[in-house]
């Protein structure tokens, strides 16, 4: 088993959930990767207009930011919010 590769939970909401057809999925990813790599591996089809949270904290859109995940990490894709 490679300790640099882990499986994390991905939560999808709103349009992201609709597009994926599921509200939750388990995805295998490198333990350490950049924000840009994370988008490409997991969220490319829906990230253009969505925000990303890791372990219930929003991640800024800096594509060079390094993110370290744990096997217990939870990733959430949050679609744009509209309100009135």
Automatic annotation (TrEMBL):
Which GO molecular function annotation, any one, does this entry have? nucleotide binding
Where along the sequence do coiled-coil regions lie? none
* GO (cellular component) term, any one: molybdopterin adenylyltransferase complex
One Pfam family linked to the record: ThiS
Q: Mind telling me which InterPro entries this protein's record contains?
A: Beta-grasp_dom_sf, MOCS2A, Mopterin_synth/thiamin_S_b, ThiS/MoaD-like
Q: Does the keyword Nucleotide-binding apply?
A: yes
Give the GO biological process terms: Mo-molybdopterin cofactor biosynthetic process
Tell me which UniProt keywords the record has, alphabetically: Nucleotide-binding
The molecule here is called Molybdopterin synthase sulfur carrier subunit
Organism of this sequence: Steinernema glaseri
